[in-house]
Write a structure and sequence with these properties.
Elements lengths: L8 H33 L4 E4 L3 E8 L11 H25 L5 H24 L2 E9 L2 E2 L5 H33 L5
Antiparallel strand pairs: 1-2, 2-3, 3-4
Helix pairs in contact: 1-3, 2-3, 3-4
Length: 183
């Protein structure tokens, strides 16, 4: 007999709605921060922590880290279609994931918020607004935004789960093989 409770359909739906509400919150924070960046940073940069964090307005017409900038109109709409496909894939995975996999559900919510945040910019403006610059000494991380951070953390959570969940499943399987069934 399993010690895990069997959640009702309403409970499963409520948890998923909670994750989607969090995703909408991240999306709205991303869009509000980009609107702030347009108003405050387009003509002047701000140093927040000297030698570590600056806010500087940038328009990214390419993909992550400024790659593929010369796509023109074709590139813009190609990235829109690609982002729509990614959002649909994440939603599909989100609804197919069992309720007990909070790390995966959270990762999907983060990915969805980030994908839709950057998709909104690309459809509306033709580029993505970036403004956060991290650096240490001579090393500068490429300029990014809250949506990019959300995508990165979501991807890290999925990668963690992919690497360590497989190991955990293998260990649980070995443990079940060692325990006699009649005890």
């Amino acid at each position: 007999m399993s010690s895990e409770p069997n959640p009702s359909g309403k409970n499963r739906i409520a948890w998923r709605i909670g994750y989607l509400v969090a995703s909408v919150g991240i999306y709205l924070t991303d869009q509000a921060s980009k609107a702030w960046a347009v108003r405050r940073l387009r003509f002047t940069d701000h140093t927040i922590i000297r030698g570590f964090l600056d806010f500087a307005y940038a328009e990214n017409r390419g993909i992550a880290f400024g790659q593929l900038q010369e796509g023109g109109s074709f590139g813009r709409w190609f990235f829109v279609v690609l982002a729509c496909a990614a959002a649909l894939a994440v939603l599909y995975y989100f609804f197919r994931t069992p309720r007990k996999d909070d790390r995966i559900l959270g990762a999907c919510a983060l990915l969805l918020a980030g994908i839709i945040g950057n998709l909104t910019d690309r459809i509306r403006l033709g580029f993505v607004i970036d403004f956060i610059q991290l650096h240490a000494g001579q090393y500068h991380w490429p300029t990014f935004n809250i949506a990019d951070a959300s995508i990165s953390f979501g991807a890290l959570l999925l990668a963690y789960d992919l690497i360590f969940a497989h190991r955990k499943t293998k260990e649980e399987h070995l443990t079940k093989q060692r325990v006699p069934s009649g005890s």
